[in-house]
Write a structure and sequence with these properties.
There is one protein chain. By secondary structure, the chain is α+β, with helices and mostly antiparallel strands. It folds into two domains: 96 residues, 3-Layer(aba) Sandwich (Rossmann fold); 89 residues, Glutathione S-transferase Yfyf (Class Pi), Chain A, domain 2 (Up-down Bundle), CATH 1.20.1050.10. The strands form four sheets. The protein has a two-stranded parallel ribbon. It has a two-stranded antiparallel sheet with strand order 3-4. The chain has a two-stranded antiparallel sheet with strand order 5-6. A hairpin with a 3-residue loop joins strand 3 and strand 4. Helix 5 packs antiparallel against helix 7 and helix 5 packs parallel to helix 8. It is elongated and about 70 Å long. It binds glutathione. The site of glutathione has 10 residues, from loops. Glutathione (GSH) binds next to loops.
């Protein structure tokens, strides 16, 4: 996907913007114009030639937000180039993203608890399971969801491959069945220790089956 900045939001800029809404190859990440924001929003929304724009447009502190994609705009992309949440801002102003990495970092700040593991081996075990769960279950299942039930919400945010949705859900389902077998004699995924691996798995499970 190409990230594009528009310099000037006159007739041509607004026309280009309209043409790219819903386009999965072009993502407008910033618009600069000296004109009044409210006026620009009005002109974008009500065009005497192209008619009313079928999109939700709001004014935000930093600019305008179309179809609520603020996390996909340049401000957030400088924090996290993936355009996703969560992103943690550190005390020195740097940013860290990816759920597993943020949790690992925060637990390390506590001197490491059972959530990541108190020994190198316990942490390796947690990272091994969270990686398997993230790559083999969370990612295929959430993409399967984004490509089908979540299609309308994600269509302007990501490249969607609707025909892959069922296969991705099947892949995840097979790995869930495999995981079930792996943990059948254990209390938690890492044995008797409640860890990040359990949280990763069950928060997804609750979201999908809520
Ligand atoms: N691999 C990423 C996935 C993050 C993710 O899926 N974030 C979702 C919310 S939980 C998101 O930002 N959705 C909105 C979007 O993609 O525009 C991580 O572990 O942090």
């Amino acid at each position: 996907m190409a990230n594009v900045s528009l310099v000037g939001f006159g007739r041509i800029g607004r026309d280009l913007f309209r043409q790219t809404l819903g386009d999965t190859d072009i993502n407008i990440v910033s618009i600069s114009d000296t004109a009044d924001k409210a006026n620009l929003i009005y002109l974008l929304k009500y065009d005497s030639i192209y008619g009313k724009l079928d999109a939700e447009i709001e004014e935000s502190e930093t600019g305008i937000v179309v179809n609520g994609k603020e996390n996909r705009q340049v401000d957030h992309l400088t924090r996290n180039p993936s355009g996703q949440m969560p992103t943690l801002e550190l005390d020195n102003g740097n940013f860290v993203s990816e759920i597993t990495v943020i949790c690992d970092y925060l637990d390390e700040q506590q001197g490491y608890t059972d959530l990541m593991g108190k020994t190198s081996e316990a942490r390796a075990e947690t990272r091994m399971w969270t990686r398997r769960i993230d790559l083999q279950i969370v990612e295929p299942l959430t993409n399967g969801f984004r490509f089908s039930e979540g299609h309308d919400f994600f269509k302007d945010r990501l490249r969607l491959i609707p025909q892959a949705a069922d296969d991705l859900k099947t892949l995840a389902q097979e790995r869930i069945t495999w995981l079930d077998e792996q943990i059948k004699d254990k209390e938690f995924i890492c044995g008797d220790r409640f860890s990040l691996a359990d949280i990763m798995f069950y928060r997804l499970f609750r979201f999908i089956f809520k």
